[in-house]
Amino acid sequence: MWKKSILMFLFSLSVQKAALDCERMRKTNEFPSPNLNSQTDAVMRGQNVSLSCFNQYKSLRITYFLFRGEKCLSIQNGPITFNLTISEARDLGPYKCKAQVSNCSKYSREFNFTFVDPVTAPVLNISVVQTKTDRYIMLRCISFNGSLPINYTFFEKNMAISPAISKNVRESAEFNLTKNNTGEGKEYRCEAKNRLPDHAKYSQLITIPSTGGESCPFCLQLLLLGFLLLVLIVIILILAFWMLPKYKARKAMKDNAPRVYGNTPMEDGTYANICKNQADEKFVPGLEPRQCVSKARDGTEYSQEIHYATPMFQEVAPRDQETCNDCKTGYVYSELIF
């Protein structure tokens, strides 16, 4: 009986001593909370990751427990690295680590992973505005896939010429620079990366050719304007040579058209009567004064003047050359006077 009592006494002493030691370590910070971390918290589906749990006091004999939520995944003595595969949403966490010494234990902060889609190769566009002495260059870079935010960096050959430009929306990052026209050609590219480490993508190289100091910045515009002017002149000459023979042929046909003013019906035209006073003209005995003069314009656009007169008839004796043996007598000759 006395042996049992002695054992109970010794056990209670050890428990009290451990409790006193745990309380003392908490007050003196001899047993701080463990650290739980990974190289990255951004992962792709199916990626293998490592979680490290350790305490800065390596002299203590510590047992480590890894939890995901309330589920214990692993137990191990000493500083430990837990290897995991993140395949589903539940594998993202939260994770926490417990460090235990005797009956004294502490927990780390929670750790969570995040699924991130890798970026694709970005597209680089370059716009150049050239003056007589300088070139103003605008660089635009965008990656059409990958989780946001995305950081863009512009390079000239292998040297970065811009800081990292972060975009939280799917739009191009822009960077402007000025170069002298006398400089040699340059190669440009851009880099796109998000939170995934070692998954940066680069655009294709684009080379801007060099320009000499005596270059003409507007030569291309002037050349294009001269070409258009030459094409216009050629078109005008073709139309002129094509229409001129037709015009000459039509005019020749109009000039050679016969004009008959007898019983042949006259072409349609415009007629106008112009009446003038004939007082100044010499009076002819037996002939009434001429009252009107008509002008006609036919379809050929040629004017012609038509005079009207009143004929007067009178009997006259036949001439000698008009008599013949076979002619019958009894004819009366008259003379028409205009």
SSE arrangement:
Layout: H1 2-28, E1 35-37, E2 42-43, E3 47-54, E4 63-68, E5 71-77, E6 80-86, E7 95-101, E8 104-107, E9 114-115, E10 123-130, E11 134-142, E12 150-156, E13 159-160, E14 165-167, E15 173-180, E16 186-193, E17 201-202, E18 206-208, H2 219-255, E19 270-275, E20 292-297, E21 303-307, E22 315-316, E23 333-334
Parallel strand pairs: 2-9
Antiparallel strand pairs: 1-3, 3-6, 4-5, 4-7, 7-8, 10-11, 11-15, 12-13, 12-14, 12-16, 16-17, 16-18, 19-20, 20-21, 22-23
The average pLDDT is: 75
Low-confidence stretches: 1-20, 261-284, 290-302
| Rough outline | rod-shaped
| Rg calc | 58 Å
The tally of helices reads: 2
Q: What structural class do you assign from the helix and strand content?
A: alpha+beta
Number of strands: 23
Q: How much of the sequence is in beta strands?
A: 25-35%
Cα distance spanning the termini: 184 Å
Task: Please give the largest β-sheet.
Answer: 6 strands, antiparallel
Helix content: 10-25%
SSE succession: HEEEEEEEEEEEEEEEEEEHEEEEE
Keywords: Glycoprotein, Membrane, Signal, Transmembrane, Transmembrane helix
InterPro entries: Ig-like_dom_sf, Ig-like_fold, IL-40-like_Ig
Organism: Balaenoptera acutorostrata
Protein name: Allergin-1
Structure notes:
This is Allergin-1. Residues 1-20 form the signal peptide. This protein has 338 residues and is α+β, with helices and mostly antiparallel strands. Helices cover 19% and strands 35% of the residues. It has two helices and 23 strands. It has helices at 2-28, 219-255; strands spanning 35-37, 42-43, 47-54, 63-68, 71-77, 80-86, 95-101, 104-107, 114-115, 123-130, 134-142, 150-156, 159-160, 165-167, 173-180, 186-193, 201-202, 206-208, 270-275, 292-297, 303-307, 315-316, 333-334. The strands form seven sheets. Strands 12, 13, 14, 16, 17 and 18 form a six-stranded antiparallel beta sheet that branches. The protein has a four-stranded antiparallel beta sheet with strand order 5-4-7-8. The longest helix has 37 residues, at 219-255. The radius of gyration is 58 Å and the shape is rod-shaped. The relative contact order is 0.08.
